[in-house]
């Protein structure tokens, strides 16, 4: 099984993350082992799951059956909101479900602002990182106010902030805050979760036609050239392969500018202030 030729990005822990991976949000737990086995077969080596997806066990079984060396894989999972009072216990349960001794990246899934427990949860994640059982730790769906709150406590900065980001929702302001702090951005919903037609964004279809690629491939290539970490989800092995077939062309500076101007500040998922 040959790995896709994804570049890697070095995180603040010193560890490298493959820039292109595979996400398993809304992948049925019953189907997960087969679908992740397909993704590994296609060549993905970076898998993004979460406790709340209910499919960590299937991800773990696919990894175990694949025969791929553990150090060739990058596995992310996430601390669910209800578990923010006990990150250590929740982390161990995730490891048990995955059947792994360590994960590569462990994230606080949402800031759960009303309860404010994310600040203490972040201390718990740093302790987990110090134990070596999560090679890197980070956050997800954090806005600047949440990041300010955890950074004010001292300690290490999150390796990443995993946020909703796609061509119609480019998050320029938050990215401008994160970049100088060395916090890398992971794009969730990189294809807009299929909730709008990428081809309807100004200029998008023409760029796809010019390269003989699908609008989804153009979007993924755009994330990569923006320096974002990205892990599109697909249940279909054919679309998995299509989404990884993005290393034989390059978007020009003009095309990158055209996609930049397609931003509509259009969120397709939940707002961090509304999730509890
Ligand atoms: N931290 C968070 O709060 C958070 C939230 C959401 C997601 N995530 C992570 O981000 C990952 C990616 O986001 P996402 O799964 O929400 O959305 P996404 O990757 O933007 O979109 C997935 C949708 O696009 C379709 N699709 C995939 N490739 C396609 C292609 N080449 N052509 C046409 N349609 C295609 C899929 O359908 P098929 O399956 O039928 O191909 C699915 O309906 C998740 O799996 C998860 O790991 C994190």
TrEMBL record:
Molecular function, one GO term: oxidoreductase activity, acting on the CH-OH group of donors, NAD or NADP as acceptor
Positions of the record's site feature: Lowers pKa of active site Tyr: 78
Q: Does the keyword Metal-binding apply?
A: no
Keywords annotated in UniProt:
NADP, Oxidoreductase
The record's listing under SUPFAM superfamilies reads: NAD(P)-linked oxidoreductase
Domain spans labelled NADP-dependent oxidoreductase? 26-263
> Which Pfam families does the record associate with it?
Aldo_ket_red (PF00248)
Superkingdom? Bacteria
> What InterPro entries does this protein map onto?
AKR, Aldo/ket_reductase_CS, NAD(P)_OxRdtase_dom_sf, NADP_OxRdtase_dom
* Catalytic residues (positions): 53
Q: Key word Cell membrane present in the record?
A: no
Q: Where does substrate bind?
A: 109
Family the entry assigns? Belongs to the aldo/keto reductase family.
Tell me what this protein is called: 2,5-diketo-D-gluconic acid reductase
């Amino acid at each position: 099984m040959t790995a896709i030729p994804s570049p890697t990005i070095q995180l603040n822990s010193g560890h490298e993350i493959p820039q292109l991976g595979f996400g398993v949000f809304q992948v049925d737990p019953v189907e997960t082992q087969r679908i992740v086995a397909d993704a590994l077969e296609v060549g993905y080596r970076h898998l993004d799951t979460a406790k709340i997806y209910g499919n960590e066990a299937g991800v773990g079984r696919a990894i175990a059956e694949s025969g791929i060396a553990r150090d060739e894989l990058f596995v992310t999972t996430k601390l669910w909101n209800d578990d923010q009072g006990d990150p250590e216990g929740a982390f161990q349960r995730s490891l048990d479900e995955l059947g792994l001794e360590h994960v590569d990246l462990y994230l606080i899934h949402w800031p759960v602002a009303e309860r404010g427990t994310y600040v203490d949860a972040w201390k718990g994640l740093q302790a987990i990182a110090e134990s070596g059982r999560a090679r890197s730790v980070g956050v997800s769906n954090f806005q600047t106010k949440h990041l300010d709150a955890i950074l004010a406590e001292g300690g290490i900065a999150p390796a990443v902030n995993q946020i909703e980001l796609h061509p119609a929702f480019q998050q320029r302001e938050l990215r401008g805050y994160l970049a100088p702090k060395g916090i890398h951005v992971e794009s969730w919903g990189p294809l807009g979760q299929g909730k709008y037609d990428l081809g309807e964004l100004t200029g998008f279809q023409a760029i796809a036609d010019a390269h003989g690629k699908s609008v989804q491939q153009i979007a993924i290539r755009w994330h990569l050239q923006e320096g974002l970490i990205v892990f599109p989800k697909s249940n279909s092995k054919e679309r998995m392969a299509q989404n990884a077939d993005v290393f034989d062309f390059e978007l020009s500076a003009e095309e990158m500018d055209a996609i930049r101007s397609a931003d509509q500040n259009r969120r397709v998922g939940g707002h961090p202030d509304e999730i509890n």
